[in-house]
Amino acid sequence: MDFEYTPEEQAFREEVRTFLAENLPRKAERGTDFLATWLAKVREKGWVGFSWPKEFGGSDGGLIEQTILREEMALAKAPPLGTSFMGLAWVGPGIMQYGTEAQKKKFIPDILDSKVTWCTGYSEPNHGSDLASIQCKAVREGDHYLVNGQKTWTTGAAFSQWIILLTRTSFDVEVKHNGITCLLVAMDSPGIDVRPIENMAGDRHFAEIFFTDVKVPVENRLGEEGDGWKVTVSALANERSSIGEVTQMFGKLDTLKALVKRTNRQGKPASKDPKVRRTLAVFEAKIAAMKYNGLRYLTKQIRGEPLTSETSVNKLHRASLEIEMDDFAVELTGQSGLQLKGGSDAVENGRWAKSSLNWPNVVIGGGTPNIQRNIIAERILGLPKD
Amino acid sequence: MNFGFTQEQEMLRDQVRRFMTEACPMSTVRELTAKDAPFSEKLWDQIASLGWLGLIVPEQYGGIGLKWIDLALVLEETARGLSPLPILSQALASAAVLRAGNDEQRANWLPALASGEVRATLALYDEPNWFDAQAVTLTGIPVDDGIELHGRKPFVADAMSSNQLLLAYLGPAGLGLAAIGKSQVKVTEEPSMDVTKPTGSIILDHVQVSADRLMPISPEDLAYLADCGAVAVTAEMVGAADTTLTMTSNYAKERIQFGKPIGQYQGVKHRLADMFVDVESFRSLLYYAAWCIDDAVGELPRAISLAKGYASDAFVRIGIDGVGLHGAIGFTAEYDVQLYLKRSKWSRPMYGDSDYHLDRVATLGGI
Ligand SMILES: Cc1cc2nc3c(=O)[nH]c(=O)nc-3n(C[C@H](O)[C@H](O)[C@H](O)COP(=O)(O)OP(=O)(O)OC[C@H]3O[C@@H](n4cnc5c(N)ncnc54)[C@H](O)[C@@H]3O)c2cc1C
């Protein structure tokens, strides 16, 4: 066991830090063209799609360097390395693995250059946790598919140019997973109707999408007909190491500690309250556990051992922390904690109140905790399904 | 021993339930709360004529002369539908006048409170999370005929819809309540997580209050009124939490995933059963505390601290899991369960969160 980095790795970390010092001005000093400049510079560095093969415009970055890059970016609270989160996280990797040469040429550069934003059309009103049962229908008609049906909860649908869409091409298969086909669909295709949905925090990040006789050229099918499940699920399993998240959460814990230090409860400093101290310490223990779990899984990956379902452990920690940390801040600050932006007594201008309403983004959006528990129980512990 | 409700009480419960479904359903609540300072004169007049505003006001003052346990029933039922009507504030103002007012003040205020003609609220503490006489910082300086108030009341429930504000202050002679006409001050509506619980803040700068509008109170009176506040809020928590549970278990019966209703999976079923255990338990604790106000007031501090201490944590968990067990649909603004999550967060610090109340339980238990 060894927690030291090699001189090369250390040098890479220094390179990232130097870059950040030179190219990441403080928030107040950022001009209107900051984001465009930033995106161009990190692209030039080869850090967008850092782990992607060089032939597709990536850097072939190793697992440890990826981790270092994510960690330093998160520490500096840097903006994302590209505008298409989903494009970089799973659409791009999916296309590189299963796409045709033409698809790779057409889609990969635009993802890396932040020219195109992707959204993910998996869930439907009646099929969320049970994704393999989706019904959105695609029928082959000569050189195109005709798509009819509905998707929902599609994050970013209103401002994305492309969608990775799971459709059903076969209704009479014995195993429902086998009738699914993955299509790459331009969001401006005729017959697509996007209706944003407001969430409980008052934002409109997700939307429902209606497809009426939408024509999708066969050349935009990702993988073979009937292989959609394999294509997308393996893309999702293309699990990013959680280290960037862990760094962000340590950062959030720091702001929480700062809040505790300047808060009084019952007229006494909250920082002296044993329950408050214990709660903060439990948060820290869980985040640290996520960190070291992540490093163990990373080591496994480096050794070429397949990751199975262990990542569900960190997902469950992440889910409970996502709920509890904001809720703790709201509880700590009493009636002030309830006030939103603009409130005379709002805490940090309502930041904690608002984020305490946003946990479903993580807790439900990425698959619910119960499903993660089922994964652990069934795939790791070998318990029977219900 | 009889820890059950009378037939009359059950009739009252039915009456409130009917009113809520017919006159104040969720569509109405949403309509009212879409505007600033949600309130409805029409609904207010209706509940006034049903007598609910005078439930705990003695008959000699134009009230119904019932008890807090009856009021608790009404609050539980109106909170089921998240009514934004300030029944709770009106009741606390009445309780304050009954406790602290002299004969003349009682005769002056109580009939108008019972009829709904005066709409009043009570604001005690000026700190976000401190429930103690020291947290009353609004200052009263004696002047010729009365006092002059200086300071700020940051957290005044239903301030916008009230026309009279009963504000706790600290003067040279001790604590008191000052009744202020709303037109005397500027009320700022504060943006808050729970739109069904409108809250305002008030700045008081040389506000004159005549002697006949002042009611001296002792620290014990203050604590008693805060305990009444905790009873009222917890009664509302019972109704709102129970509805969250009903909504969520109904959804679990209908929502099919993997070919079965999700309620068939123990991960869902057992959580719902645990929610039931919690609601059932803080309901009993609350009924006992509400009974104590009129019939065993010496027991009140411990009884209400047990109830609010239990409910504050349990309801927040119920609110979060209520949304979580609905999946993504529970996160939408259109779906009602999220309004209950917000109510659970609002309820937690009101008149003391679980830390405050459970600590008090320990202290009262000699620890
Ligand atoms: C903010 C947000 C963003 C999202 N973004 C996207 C997106 O971009 N693209 C996309 O395709 N989807 C997206 N989703 C949808 C998300 O993937 C689904 O919400 C999620 O998979 C759960 O499905 P559901 O909402 O239908 O809930 P359901 O599957 O109906 O689940 C309801 C409840 O039942 C429980 N449950 C279900 N089955 C079981 C079981 N077998 N055992 C025990 N408990 C069970 C669940 O845990 C949950 O608590 C998003 C969701 C949210 C909230």
Write the layout of secondary structure elements.
The complex is a heterodimer of chains A (386) and B (367).
Chain A: H1 7-23, H2 34-45, H3 63-75, H4 85-98, H5 101-112, E1 118-121, E2 137-141, E3 144-155, E4 162-168, E5 180-186, E6 192-197, E7 206-217, E8 221-222, H6 228-237, H7 243-261, E9 264-265, E10 268-269, H8 274-302, H9 311-332, H10 351-355, H11 360-363, H12 369-380
Parallel strand pairs in A: 1-4
Antiparallel strand pairs in A: 2-3, 3-7, 4-5, 5-8, 6-7, 9-10
Chain B: H1 7-22, H2 26-33, H3 41-49, H4 68-80, H5 87-100, H6 103-115, E1 120-123, E2 139-143, E3 146-157, E4 164-171, E5 174-181, E6 186-190, E7 199-209, E8 214-216, H7 219-254, E9 256-257, E10 260-261, H8 266-295, H9 300-326, H10 337-347, H11 354-364
Report the radius of gyration of chain A as a whole number of Å.
Answer: 22 Å
Q: In percent, how much strand structure appears in the residues of chain A?
A: 15-25%
Oligomeric grouping of the chains: heterodimer
Coarse shape of chain B: globular
CATH homology-level superfamily of the largest domain in chain B: Butyryl-CoA Dehydrogenase, subunit A, domain 3
* CATH superfamily heading of the largest domain in chain A: Butyryl-CoA Dehydrogenase, subunit A, domain 3
List the bound ligands: flavin-adenine dinucleotide
Write out the strand line-up for the largest beta sheet of chain B, numbering strands in chain order: 1-4-5-8
Question: What percent of the residues of chain A sit in helical stretches (DSSP H or I)?
Answer: 40-55%
In the CATH hierarchy, what is the architecture of the largest domain in chain B at level 2?
A: Up-down Bundle
Question: What's the total helix number of chain A?
Answer: 12
